[in-house]
Amino acid sequence: MELKEVLLKRRSVRKFTEEPVSYEMTEELLHAAMSGPSACNRKPWEFYVVTNEQILEELKTASKFTKISAKLAIVICGNLSRALPMHMADYWIQDCSAATENILLRATDLGLGAVWCGIHPQKRAEEKVRKALGIPEKQIPLNIIYIGHPAEEPEARDQYEENRVHYI
Ligand SMILES: Cc1cc2nc3c(=O)[nH]c(=O)nc-3n(C[C@H](O)[C@H](O)[C@H](O)COP(=O)(O)O)c2cc1C
User: Fold this and answer.
1) pLDDT tens per residue, range 35-68
2) Using alpha carbons only, how large is the chain's radius of gyration in Å?
């Protein structure tokens, strides 16, 4: 698929078939994630790949908006031990967000569906995800990305709004 087509075709998919996502496809997604840019190339990310049904059930309870049934979830965490020092540390959020978008785009390219479910900065949701996966203190769960073979196909669309662009 052309990149432009992938960009427009990427939509949040929240309904999936029972077919699991293969190991090979999962690896493709993780390669895409780690191809992303990061401030000073610190790569302050960790990826938790979840296929265990019981843990997937636990993740669903993280927030009101994470109740999605999928065969695969990738939880992206910021690793503060790898982040930039002091006031620059928060760049981990942008770094991990870039990795997240890469996963969504590659998933679309592979014919998979995916949805980004935000966790950080919701403290209660962070704690639930941390507990479900045994995430160490120095890591902060940014989101849960649910991924699977799509059972719905939201329409591709262009959200361009001319009045939000400011040429100087
Ligand atoms: C930071 C962030 C947090 C989000 N959290 C959730 C969520 O918790 N649950 C959910 O179903 N969708 C979530 N979404 C998906 C958005 O609802 C979705 O991207 C938006 O409605 C636009 O639709 P589209 O992705 O189909 O273009 C989130 C998206 C982002 C970027």
Assistant:
1) 999 999 999 999 999 999 999 999 999 999 999 9
2) 16
